[in-house]
Fold this sequence. Notes:
With 365 residues, the chain is an alpha+beta fold. It contains eleven helices and 13 strands. The protein has helices at 10-35, 55-61, 73-76, 81-87, 127-160, 170-198, 209-224, 244-260, 292-295, 307-312, 319-329; strands at 40-44, 50-53, 94-99, 102-114, 118-125, 205-207, 229-234, 239-242, 267-275, 278-285, 333-339, 343-351, 355-356. A hairpin with a 2-residue loop joins strand 3 and strand 4. The N and C termini lie far apart (84 Å).
Amino acid sequence: MMTTPAAPNPLQHDRFMMRSRRLAANLRDLRNAASQLPDAVVLLDRQQRIRWFNHAAENLLGLRRPQDRGAALQQRLAGSKLADWLRGGAHEPLNDAVAPGQADSQINVSLLPFGDQEQLLLARDISHLNRLEQVRRDFVANVSHELRTPLTVIHGYLELIDPEDVPELASVLDEMRVQSKRMGQIVEDLLTLSRLETQHHISDERVPMAALLATVRKEAEALSHGRHRITLQSTAEADLLGSPKDLHSALSNLASNAVRYTPAGGSITIRWERTPDGAVYSVNDTGFGISATHLSRLTERFYRVSSSRSRDSGGTGLGLSIVKHVLNLHQAQLRIESTPGVGSTFACQFGQARLLAPGDKDEDR
Length: 365
Ligand code: ADP
């Protein structure tokens, strides 16, 4: 038997209409608010076609309304780094890309899933941050440069004074020499860091590893003065492709840290060995070790676990920062494992693309 639906109660109908109007108003408010966000927001459907975008997306991504509604985002951004990133799956955020809509702006972009396989593209203008970062870099580079000459002069004069001529000042002179040398080293390290930071590519030269490893070992032995047992195990049979000077600086830095943070009688092992995806250079020591809370911050400039230990051993606090930058330029990763009181291992993982068979020509890679 069929029943006719009951006529809506006028009170219920009014309530329903009121709720609908409230919902519509909320939706409008939300959209208006999103359209004013300083970050670009683009709603994408399952096929990555553009459903909606805000004003910032017009400026930063160059999208136009109404014609870009329904367009495939990848096609719309064709030729830009963003299109390549989308094509590659956009699994990780894209950092420091040129904004397709504003060539003089840089953006960080991420793609977030929501709803039923829909996606939200967010792009943030980081030009201002980049400019500040540039000011900071220039400032550090300029200060370091300006300090270089007066320091060289002071150091030169200190070297000229013979402590035997002024025996009462001998210890003072000694300390002044040590400190002026330390300041000079800090300035040199800061200048190296500035150079590495502004560099995006390194020279692709063959770095003969047998010779480099022998040098690193010799330098470590000179620093140790026979206080440690230093072993070299080189089984990788591979040379590196990169900057000889910077790789020497990074690899010897790790070995010199091992010497400086390992008490006399300890052992240090330098290894160069193959891994399934390339080769790894590592330095293992039986030294003081580092507790886990410090590990993530070790490569920050001037970060030290113990300032006095670093200073006493002649450290500038910039060594691991330099190592990290050099490795980044070689697309290599630094891994640190350490146990306080037991020792540490600092390992640099180089990819296959950075390896050369020893003695081969570069093209034979
Ligand atoms: P520093 O000039 O102070 O050695 P680095 O950047 O080379 O600066 O190292 C940062 C800090 O990391 C050091 O001050 C030290 O506390 C810690 N560190 C580095 N290497 C080792 C190591 N092999 N064993 C223990 N601590 C280390």
